[in-house]
Amino acid sequence: METRAAVAFQAGKPLSVESVTVDGPREGEVLVEIKATGVCHTDAFTLSGEDPEGMFPAILGHEGAGVVVDVGPGVKSLKPGDHVIPLYTPECRECEYCLNPKTNLCQSIRSTQGQGLMPDGSSRFSINGEPVLHYMGCSTFSNHTVLPEIALAKIRSDAPFDKVCYIGCGVTTGIGAVINTAKVEIGSNVVVFGLGGIGLNVIQGARLAGANMIVGVDINPDKKALAERYGMTHFVNPLEVEGDLVPYLVDLTGGGADYSFECIGRTDTMRQALECAHKGWGESIIIGVAGAGQEISTRPFQLVTGRSWRGTAFGGARGRTDVPKIVDWYMDGKIEIDSMITHTMPLDEINTAFDLMHEGKSIRSVVTF
Ligand code: APR
Ligand code: ZN
């Protein structure tokens, strides 16, 4: 079939909206009509050319929601008409990783996904017979896309696509880091570095978990009022702190954070996040993605004295199991999404979403089809 998609032909160039041929679903695959997609920093990172795994031409996008149109042979858990959220971290429930409760990093289709291909090693997308690559196993910047059954979370049918698409990446990454990775306990003191689309979701996750102090750290003073809305109790602007930030945060939290989260992607703030964690038990979770080749550092004594440094991807969530629950939390009013979606636009204006992100003007832009 023919569909419309925003295609990335070359690193550093704007996306171009094209007519693209999509082949039907093969064994174990599902054809999905994407109704809405968020535009995330990871898409911008790949488009910039700095992503060492990035390849072109490709159809980017990994934060979508849509409806099943057709299923290939052997697909059992989904049927046409089902509402779904694509998963860049699938959940096969059979591999060594899925069977280990300590991780969510299903590896069953990892190698082909990293090459921009379906599990059988081919692409379903082409333009004039020339193949176009998939991206993060999702390619939600296409009105129609094909995914393996194990990479789709079935969600309730009354959830609005243009809001719950954000659960496909940002919301789950932030809230999941608190609930699945850190397992924040009631009464914990939490410090969040970076109050963007990820950090705000860490904040609402900490509120949901019953945290005591929720300290937000950001160099942009405009983030204060916004973050308070999702549960931040204290705001710290590092540019206004006299002296070092770390002792200031340790003092503010009465000895250090029980849990800290880095949601910026800078190695210097990763170090600050670790070092503001409480001696003896504080845990620091890295969510932000640093540039290729960068390294983190601290004095080993920080770890010897009981702090731990961890990281998380997709909020430690097992997508097929956890994503439908997060959709329920949104529909039940337990978490907020609407106010984080600052811009909505049609596919033809998708490049504006990247501009708004680079200018720091949006929290999240959503493209609707
Ligand atoms: N100290 C404190 N805050 C900072 C600093 C700094 N040195 N530098 C930037 N910030 C703040 C910005 O003002 C902004 O509010 O960090 C926030 C980052 O937010 P966004 O740009 O919206 O990024 P977000 O989408 O939340 O993603 C954060 O997670 O998924 C990864 O690749 C993504 O690494 C990125 C990170
Ligand atoms: Zn993302």
From TrEMBL:
EC number: 1.1.1.284
Domain of life (superkingdom): Bacteria
Annotated GO biological process: formaldehyde catabolic process
Gene Ontology molecular-function annotations: alcohol dehydrogenase (NAD+) activity; S-(hydroxymethyl)glutathione dehydrogenase (NAD+) activity; S-(hydroxymethyl)glutathione dehydrogenase (NADP+) activity; S-nitrosoglutathione reductase (NADH) activity; zinc ion binding
Cofactor(s) this protein requires: Zn(2+)
Keyword Transit peptide: no
Function in brief: Has high formaldehyde dehydrogenase activity in the presence of glutathione and catalyzes the oxidation of normal alcohols in a reaction that is not GSH-dependent. In addition, hemithiolacetals other than those formed from GSH, including omega-thiol fatty acids, also are substrates. Also acts as a S-nitroso-glutathione reductase by catalyzing the NADH-dependent reduction of S-nitrosoglutathione.
Entry protein name: S-(hydroxymethyl)glutathione dehydrogenase
Lineage: Bacteria, Pseudomonadati, Pseudomonadota, Alphaproteobacteria, Rhodospirillales
